[in-house]
């Protein structure tokens, strides 16, 4: 498979506080790749760097061979990268329809295109169609996650970056969200998934990278990572012998 995105030697920091060191990974066309690890391991920081919300101190990011390391986030969206942030971050006083329209800003002069994209989102999430005129802040947590994912899909991304999509959601809603992620991927969109729930992450993705204190300590096929002691330690701080199997 052809590399869609490649990150090499990323050094990430917040001010003087180092967050990640020497992060390197790639995502092939059509893949779901997950970044897993404990809280504070550097997963969300890495995702923010890919989406353009945090510029690296060192290293590089290439999208289909083009250097996007220092491009602003809106330029990355135009090139095909969308972010679904942790906590959903919908605009609570705008309607569902208005939130979705904001996701299609690169098509803002193409009314017909926006209408078609919105119909596709409503086909993915029929509940959003029913609530199209409702303020986003009145939706349930699961509906807001649907809206955040739908808003990201309004730019027709080649790569969608998902930051903790299961956070704060009921188990049945989480199953629905992850089912939709697989549907989106099957339609051709690559996915970079940051997820605290190891079971869902490793069952959904084909490959994964394990982060611990800002560095990648393991990588490979998710089938193999589910049985890697380092994966269990990165999540729960205990050895495989002390845990139930993932």
N- and C-termini, Cα separation? 28 Å
Text of the CATH class: Alpha Beta
How much strand content do the residues show?
Answer: 25-35%
Q: Work out the number of β strands.
A: 10
The name of the CATH topology is Rossmann fold
Order of helices and strands: EEEHEEHEHHHHEHEHEEHH
CATH superfamily annotation: P-loop containing nucleotide triphosphate hydrolases
Q: What form results from the Cα inertia axes?
A: globular
Kindly give the count of domains.
1
How would you sum up the major sheet? 6 strands, mixed
Which secondary-structure class do the elements indicate? alpha/beta
Count of helical segments?
10
| CATH architecture type | 3-Layer(aba) Sandwich
Helix content: 25-40%
Summed over residues and divided by their number, the pLDDT gives a mean of 88
Q: Residue ranges: pLDDT <50 for 5 or more in a row?
A: 236-246
Q: Provide the spatial order of strands within the biggest beta sheet.
A: 6-7-8-3-9-10
Rounded to an integer, what's the Rg over CA atoms?
A: 18 Å
Give an account of the 3D structure.
The chain has 246 residues and is an alpha/beta fold. It has a single domain (3-242), classed as Rossmann fold (3-Layer(aba) Sandwich). The chain contains ten helices and ten strands. It is globular. The model is unreliable at 236-246 (pLDDT under 50).
């Amino acid at each position: 498979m052809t590399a869609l995105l490649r990150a090499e030697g990323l050094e990430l920091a917040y001010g003087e506080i180092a967050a990640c060191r020497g992060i390197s990974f790639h995502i092939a066309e059509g893949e779901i790749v997950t970044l897993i690890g404990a809280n504070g391991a550097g997963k969300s920081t890495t995702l923010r760097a890919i989406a353009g919300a945090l510029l690296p101190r060192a290293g590089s990011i290439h999208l289909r061979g083009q250097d996007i390391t220092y491009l602003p986030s809106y330029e990355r969206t135009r090139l095909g990268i969308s972010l679904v942030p942790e906590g959903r971050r919908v605009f609570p006083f705008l309607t569902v329809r208005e939130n979705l329209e904001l996701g299609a800003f690169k098509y803002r002069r193409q009314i017909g295109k926006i209408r078609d994209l919105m119909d596709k989102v409503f086909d993915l999430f029929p509940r959003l169609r029913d609530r199209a005129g409702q303020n986003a802040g009145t939706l349930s947590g699961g509906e807001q996650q649907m809206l955040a994912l739908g808003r990201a899909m309004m730019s027709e991304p080649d790569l969608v970056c998902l930051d903790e999509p299961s956070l704060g959601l009921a188990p049945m809603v989480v199953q629905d969200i992850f089912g939709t992620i697989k549907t989106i991927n099957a339609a051709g969109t690559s996915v970079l998934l940051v997820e605290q729930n190891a079971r869902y992450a490793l069952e959904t993705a084909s490959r994964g990278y394990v982060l611990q204190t800002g560095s990648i300590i393991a990588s490979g096929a998710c089938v193999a990572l589910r049985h890697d002691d380092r994966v269990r330690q990165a999540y729960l701080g205990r050895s495989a012998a002390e845990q139930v199997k993932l």
